[in-house]
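Last lecture ended with a question: if I hand you only a sequence, what can you say about the shape of the protein? Today we answer it with a concrete record. The protein is DUF2972 domain-containing protein. Below, first the input exactly as provided, then the predicted structure, then a couple of comments.
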Amino acid sequence: MQDKENRKHIFALADAKVPVLINLRDPIGRLKHGINHGWYKSNQWIYEINQHKEALDRVTYGGQDKPHLDLLESVLKNKNIGNISIWEYHQTIQEIRNASSIHYLDMQEIVGKRTFDTMTQLSQEFRFPLPKEEDRKFYESKINNQYRYLLPIIFRVNEEIKILVEQSTYNIEFILGLNLSSSIVGGFLAINDYNKNELLNHTFSILQDNMDIISQLNLDSLGLQIKILADKKQSQEIAYQANHSNLKNDLQQYLFALKEKIQSIETNKVTESQVLEYLKEHKDLRKIYQTYFEKEFVHIKQVRPDIVESWKYYQEFERMCAELD
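The predicted structure:
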């Protein structure tokens, strides 16, 4: 309730006539995403080099270790994966009294290689900064992927040597907003704000002049899209540790464990079909979602029926409701 009141207050402050852009997604796909999304299990970012199990135990799904369809009820109770107000499209546009126009953007327009061109077009229509060509890779990458809560992390070899593990698709410098172009809003990717400063303090020297540990220690990356970096000034000490300690073996064992964790995350994801089947079997829950969608999708169906018609699983949901009710 407090969030709704805050939303109304913010909208009331808009005293100029402005266009409004609302991002949409197939609601059944959005439910699937919410279940698979997970959240941080802890705010720990730094681990000892042999703490492989702890370093991978970073994701929770409503108190469980893998996605589960019972989370569909949590949405209604404002727990774990958001709340049903995320679909308050019709109610929201009623609250934006100074909207000069309402525009809808389907999520499929900002996925993968379509994203950069879409953002370029939107920047011209809504007059925000053009995306820059050098940032195209970022726009086309999948930010919320299977590494989301697992990386970045830091392994502490000893008091002097710390090793950074991050995604190879974009680096932590990008994430923390240290060196972003003006067309990107930084500091919002992959990590929350709780321990951002702690993470930054321990990685700054690594970011300034780093070396690739995977190649230096001849590790098998197992096809993982990651980088393992250390401060280049510590190259001799790292080489020594690799020859006189378990450093190389510890890192390789971590990579094996990370590969297994990634495969487990992918294997245990629920599908849209499973969401539909669950709603089919739970009539009361289905009726709540059906009523809510019918109320909140009124304006969308009036002005952008093409978007609603493109939602494969929502169309199946509507047919299912008609047949069962």
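Comments.
1. The two ends are 31 Å apart (CA to CA).
2. Strands lie at 18-24, 39-40, 46-48, 59-60, 99-106, 153-156, 162-167, 210-212, 226-231.
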